[in-house]
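Design job #97: recover the sequence.
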């Protein structure tokens, strides 16, 4: 790595084979390690226990990969609830998230190098043969350039890297003749037309068969891309160039990076989330380390490590300095405006930023890495998983969790850097939670809502590419892996590229390097001095001492500014006015508000914080008036509580959040629509009645089944193909009259979720479910000890899974309608798909349109007209409010309107920002 990481000026060069992942010995680390620590050491984990956990990871991988290969392959992804493949065009569109699917057996390619890391060499050999035999790249399908690069190009290159390593060892892959590399090169050429812009920034999407802009390509009219989308190419493209000698790939990726660097906001040194690929104007000027930007920073630092090009480190350090100055508010990482970086752009964080502590380890800045990681872990302990977004006071902002690996990634790197067994315990918790809450008979299902524990029919390929790799490596000793992991660098999708690439075909990149070494500004050149193992032994006490003060940070829910409040108490000054205490009728409060807009920087800062709190408070109050989603958990054989369906609540009947769950066998009512007195009361008596949506009011259905003796009801949508994956959840309204007579709980399921229950009845007749506000612990609900033992993940379970797989394979026809729905903004790194989209969202790219939580309810009494209650925060309104105080205050807090006039300075700043004065 002296070639890879060594540049001039670094006092402590890296030895050739030093662990790059431990490039963690900057001066800051050396200093803090010298401080004395008196907290207790976490108990070390025995080799046996580590091996046990490693084996558990292997078993889990087999469960995920085996089910994909058996029930989904050659489709791109497995749908673990319905146990079949997700084929683009054959399922309702989920929006931009589907742009990762190119009909190229995505999960198989993304899993290739994981197989080798997990010591499954034989399976790897088989998998490579399958890729070469089955995968076709000449598909008329529009894919995301970013996703295709990190998952498919990265997957092929990772596979190639380990294939040649194995071949060299002499046992496996002896037949291999660079076929994966040839495929990678073909894919590289298919992606290149995306770079045909004057800026050199790539278009966000490309048609694999027809490229860009041709009429048949159905893409090429986009104007914007996210920063991460344009800035996360260099590792794969440079590796492709260096492996093949075709320089063009590295040149294009460098050009895109150079352009982004030029466009950084010069006073803050930050970059925005979205950029115009033709003009280079920032379209979204908020800046963080999560969604939309994350891997741009990651690739600058890793490009330095892999390619040995000092200019990348210089850029990274410049950005890092800005991040630590403005965005990092330990343990939080909060988005700010690039032109006014002292202003927060949001009051919530997204889950993608969980990779950042891992990157900080690579940078060598361990303290903030430990702090942020600890905060994230506490959020996880509260909700079992990291919700896609959570507020600064740790409330769920967006409750989905698609089994993202970022937190496991950071846990692995922190363990490598600190040696603290605490991080092994963290990994153990992640494993337990995955098995307990996400494992379903046919794989692992994403969480639809971490609060209810309900599932989504989705298992993303990154779960296999990354999660299992990091978890396995966390518990593995050197001898557990058949090659030296330290010889490789992880891409953002955890694909492995060999560090020796830094010395191969190196000259091809030099002519394109924009920064001249002689012109580098050394004052901002924080040379990374690697290898903690050489400088000092791992010291677990160090990490412990940093975590200690943060022990209860989430429980105490310490909002930003609390430290300043305490400080002012100490100095005898009055604490600043907090939004939650504000009363518009209190003259003293109005006086304080006036001051906030006028005088000192501190007053102004208080004012801005107050505004943000007020907005947050108001949206929180709105949310609190609405009902959260509920869960239907199938608990009878062969489900045993593993499958949890997302259900909409009713505004009448038993409130499941206040009462114990309702448990019972299900029975279809007759008539199925439940709109008249039931003709089969004996069948539904003491059971949970299934009723079809439509033809009368929900309350009427509830009364009819209640009169027949049902103990609960599940209304199943009559729109075939509807699913909570693609449509916002509904809340069933009453009939406008008094509904106090309805005592039983009622829940609503979309057609796809309802079909899972209906199919189960067809197959097993007796189907027992739990209706609740939140999935229950399986061990607790399984009374029958036999059931309980069957529930444990084991190889026996696999045969059981197979019968369940059949059970779950839906025979229903799939709705082919390509309905556009809001997608996961964090996934997609995507751009507006049409001008109409952009208009609707008032300038916000869909990649940040977070579906709202429980806002915007319209109550109505008619069945068929439900109220929107999916967990989709209205990002649009929040961002607008945050960046345009005139509007939000005018709307929400009338009496303060006049006071805002005093805040000219900040309003002007906002306006300037809007004009994008770079
Ligand atoms: C992965 O595909 C990559 O890590 C990417 O950089 C962003 N996140 C997803 C998984 O969450």
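Job complete. Output follows.
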């Amino acid at each position: 790595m002296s070639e890879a990481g060594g540049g001039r000026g670094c006092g402590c060069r890296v030895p050739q084979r030093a662990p790059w992942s431990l490039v963690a010995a900057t001066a800051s680390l050396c200093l803090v390690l010298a401080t004395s620590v008196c907290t207790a050491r976490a108990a070390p984990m025995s080799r046996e226990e580590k091996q046990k956990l490693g084996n558990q990871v292997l078993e889990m991988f087999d469960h995920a990969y085996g089910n994909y290969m058996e029930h989904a392959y050659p489709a791109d992804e497995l749908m673990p609830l319905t146990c079949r493949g997700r084929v683009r065009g054959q399922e309702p569109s989920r929006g931009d998230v589907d742009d990762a699917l190119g009909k190229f057996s995505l999960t198989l390619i993304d899993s290739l190098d994981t197989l080798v890391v997990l010591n499954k060499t034989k399976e790897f050999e088989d998998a490579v043969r399958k890729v070469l035999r089955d995968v076709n790249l000449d598909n008329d399908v529009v894919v995301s350039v970013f996703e295709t690069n990190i998952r498919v190009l990265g997957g092929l290159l990772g596979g190639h890297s380990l294939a040649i390593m194995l071949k060299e060892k002499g046992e496996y892959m002896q037949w291999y003749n660079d076929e994966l590399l040839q495929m990678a090169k073909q894919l590289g050429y298919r992606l290149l037309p995306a770079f045909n812009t004057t800026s050199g920034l790539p278009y966000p999407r490309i048609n694999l068969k027809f490229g860009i802009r041709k009429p048949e390509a159905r893409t090429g009219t986009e104007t914007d891309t996210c920063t991460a989308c344009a800035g996360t190419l260099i590792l794969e493209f440079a590796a492709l160039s260096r492996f093949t000698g075709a320089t063009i790939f590295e040149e294009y990726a460098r050009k895109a990076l150079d352009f982004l660097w030029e466009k950084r906001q010069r006073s803050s040194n930050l970059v925005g989330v979205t950029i115009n690929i033709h003009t280079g104007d920032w379209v979204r000027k908020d800046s963080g380390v999560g969604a939309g930007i994350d891997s741009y920073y990651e690739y600058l630092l890793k490009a330095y490590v892999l390619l040995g090009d000092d200019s990348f480190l210089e850029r990274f350090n410049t950005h890092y300095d800005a991040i630590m100055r403005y965005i990092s508010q330990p343990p939080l990482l909060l988005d700010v405006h690039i032109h006014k970086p002292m202003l927060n752009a949001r009051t919530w964080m997204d889950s993608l930023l969980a990779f950042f502590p891992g990157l900080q380890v690579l940078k060598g800045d361990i303290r903030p890495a430990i702090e942020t990681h600890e905060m994230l872990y506490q959020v996880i302990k509260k909700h079992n998983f990291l919700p896609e977004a959570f507020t600064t006071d740790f409330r769920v902002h967006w409750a989905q969790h698609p089994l993202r690996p970022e937190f496991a990634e950071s846990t692995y790197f922190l363990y490598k850097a600190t040696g603290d067994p605490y991080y092994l315990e963290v990994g153990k918790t992640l494993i337990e939670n995955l098995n307990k809450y996400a494992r379903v008979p046919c794989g692992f299902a994403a969480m639809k809502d971490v609060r209810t524990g309900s599932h989504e029919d989705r298992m993303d390929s990154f779960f296999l590419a990354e999660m299992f790799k990091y978890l396995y490596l966390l518990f593995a000793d050197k001898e557990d892996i058949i090659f030296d992991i330290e010889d490789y660098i992880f891409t953002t999708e955890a694909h492995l590229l060999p560090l020796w690439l830094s010395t191969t075909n190196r000259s091809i990149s030099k002519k394109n390097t924009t920064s001249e070494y002689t012109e580098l500004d050394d004052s901002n050149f924080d040379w990374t001095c690697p290898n903690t193992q050489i400088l000092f032994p791992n010291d677990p006490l160090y990490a412990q001492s940093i975590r200690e003060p943060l022990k209860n940070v989430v429980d105490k829910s310490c909002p930003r500014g609390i430290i300043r409040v305490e400080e002012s108490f100490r100095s005898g000054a009055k604490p600043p006015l907090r939004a939650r205490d504000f009363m518009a009728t209190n003259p003293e409060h109005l006086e304080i508000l006036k001051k906030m807009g006028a005088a000192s920087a501190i007053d102004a800062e208080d004012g801005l914080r107050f505004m943000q709190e007020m907005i947050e408070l108001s949206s929180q109050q709105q949310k609190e008036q609405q009902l959260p989603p509920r869960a239907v958990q199938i608990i009878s054989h062969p489900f045993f509580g593993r499958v949890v369906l997302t259900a909409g609540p009713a505004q009448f009947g038993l409130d499941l959040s206040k009462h114990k769950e309702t448990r019972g066998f299900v029975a279809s009512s007759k008539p199925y629509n439940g709109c008249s007195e039931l003709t089969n009361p004996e069948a539904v008596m003491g059971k949970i009645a299934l009723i079809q949506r439509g033809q009368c009011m929900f309350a009427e259905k509830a009364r009819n089944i209640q009169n027949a003796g049902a103990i609960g009801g599940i209304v199943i949508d009559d729109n075939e193909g509807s699913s909570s994956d693609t449509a916002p959840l509904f809340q069933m309204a009453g009939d406008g009259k008094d509904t106090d007579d309805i005592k039983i709980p009622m829940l609503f399921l979309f057609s796809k979720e309802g079909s899972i229950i209906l199919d189960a009845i067809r197959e097993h007749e007796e189907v027992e479910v739990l209706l609740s506000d939140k999935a229950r612990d399986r061990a607790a609900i399984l009374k029958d000890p036999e059931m309980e033992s069957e529930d444990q993940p084991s190889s026996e379970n696999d045969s059981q899974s197979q019968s369940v797989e059949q059970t779950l394979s839906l025979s229903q026809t799939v709705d082919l309608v390509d309905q556009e729905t809001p997608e996961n903004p964090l996934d997609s790194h995507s751009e507006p798909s049409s001008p109409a989209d952009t208009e609707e969202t008032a300038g916000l790219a869909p990649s940040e349109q977070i579906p709202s939580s429980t806002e915007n309810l319209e109550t109505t009494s008619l069945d068929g007209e439900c109220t929107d209650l999916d967990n989709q925060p209205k990002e649009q309104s929040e961002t607008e409010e945050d960046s345009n105080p005139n509007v939000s205050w005018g709307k929400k807090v009338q009496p303060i309107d006049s006071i805002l006039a005093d805040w000219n300075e900040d309003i002007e700043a906002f306006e300037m920002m809007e004009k994008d004065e770079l």
